[in-house]
Write a structure and sequence with these properties.
Blueprint (H helix, E strand, L loop, with lengths): L1 E6 L5 H14 L4 E4 L10 E4 L16 E4 L17 E2 L4 H20 L2 H4 L19 E4 L3 H12 L4 E5 L9 E4 H9 L4 E4 L13 H6 L4 E5 L8 H9 L3 E6 L12 H4 L3 E3 L9 H17 L14
Parallel strand pairs: 1-2, 1-3, 3-4, 4-5, 6-7, 6-9, 7-8, 9-10, 10-11, 11-12
Helix pairs in contact: 1-9, 2-4
The structure holds NADPH dihydro-nicotinamide-adenine-dinucleotide phosphate and oxalic acid (OXD).
């Protein structure tokens, strides 16, 4: 009988209890799963989320893996007490949510929907937007989420360019990588979507210099992490008319402080870190599959590289 410690916050336990037990039963794994932990040395696996119960992992001497419910791991990856393997979340339902958020906000800006939804003077302006094939989109980050969003945007006809750390060949996608590829990937992009993790290398990737490479009037969508953008540079580019709009889901400080300029800026849309949520039913299956793998001596899925930070 395995012992699983649900250290992902008591508030989440009611939503996860039944899906986890069901997924364990379906996988034929005998396990006790609980949000209580009487004996850390008896725990086989930790199901974790930031803001949960654990800061010091050292008493969990028998633990074979820490299974994060979040895709982003910046809040745990540098924890010096964590010596166990760490897996991040790749959840098909979370991915679906991200695709919908990115498609929705891309289409809003692409079609210029605000002009018609907010039209207090009843202006009759029959200007048509370009069609998708005329609107280049660049996605920074070609991981689980970036690739899913790229595929969905391509299906609608957008020419999509992607950028990551390592070289990639993905059908229909122009892929660039590394510092040298960033300028090419961003140059003349009309919409840029940030789906990078927060690591020391990715902080402020959109800054005074790189914002200037975008097409005039470009739109920025950031469902990745707030640290990817130099906020002052973004606001300056909006104020100068270089950018058309920024739709931001993630921020350096969350909740976004009430006095932050993003709230009041007419060309910034704030969404409250809701682009994509881990969903208990599908995420429980992912967690349990990793427990099955670890017990069978098979490689873990979505293992975090602690040195790379994602
Ligand atoms: P992945 O780990 O699958 O992908 C990360 C991508 O970023 C990879 O393509 C990787 O390149 C690239 N990358 C990392 N570091 C660099 C670098 N220094 N230079 C260039 N590219 C780099 O992550 P996911 O796609 O699953 O998630 C991405 C992020 O989305 C998460 O880390 C999280 O911050 C955010 N997120 C936000 C949510 C929300 O609700 N707002 C919900 C879920 C996630 P390579 O492929 O070469 O390794
Ligand atoms: C995540 C997130 O990383 O919700 O999963 O941002």
């Amino acid at each position: 009988m395995l012992t699983l410690y649900f250290a992902a916050g008591r508030a989440r336990w009611p939503a996860y209890e039944a899906p986890l037990r069901k997924a364990l039963a379906e996988a034929g794994i005998a396990a006790e799963v609980s949000p209580d932990c009487a004996d850390p040395a008896a725990v086989d696996y930790i199901i974790f989320a930031p803001g949960g119960e654990i800061e010091d992992f050292s008493p969990f001497t028998r633990c074979k893996a820490v299974l994060n419910l979040w895709a982003g791991v910046e809040k745990i990856v540098g924890n010096p007490t964590l010596t166990q393997p760490l897996c991040r979340m790749v959840d098909p339902a979370l991915t679906a949510g991200m695709v919908e958020w990115v498609l929705g906000h891309t289409l809003r800006h692409h079609l210029g929907m605000d002009r018609h939804i907010i039209n207090p003077t009843h202006e009759w302006d029959p200007t048509s937007p370009p069609i998708a094939t005329e609107r280049p989109v660049t996605i920074l980050g070609l991981g689980a989420l970036g690739q899913a969003c790229a595929g969905a945007l391509q299906t609608l006809g957008f020419p999509v360019t992607g950028w990551g750390r390592t070289p990639k060949e993905i059908a229909g996608l122009r892929c660039y990588h590394g510092a040298s590829g960033l300028k090419t990937a961003l140059t003349q992009a009309q919409i840029v979507v940030l789906l990078l993790p927060n690591t020391p290398e990715t902080q402020n990737i959109l800054n005074v210099e790189s914002l200037d490479w975008l097409a005039d009037g470009a739109f920025v969508l950031n469902p990745g992490r707030g640290h990817l953008i130099d906020d002052d540079a973004l606001l300056a580019a909006l104020d100068a008319g270089k950018l058309g709009h920024a739709t931001l889901d993630v921020f350096r400080t969350e909740p976004l402080p009430q006095d932050h300029r993003f709230w009041a800026h007419p060309r910034v849309t704030v969404t409250p870190h809701i682009a994509a949520e881990t969903r208990p039913v599908s995420a429980s299956r992912v967690v349990v599959e990793n427990i099955r793998r670890a017990q069978a001596g098979e490689p873990l899925l979505h293992l975090v590289d602690r040195l790379r930070g994602y």
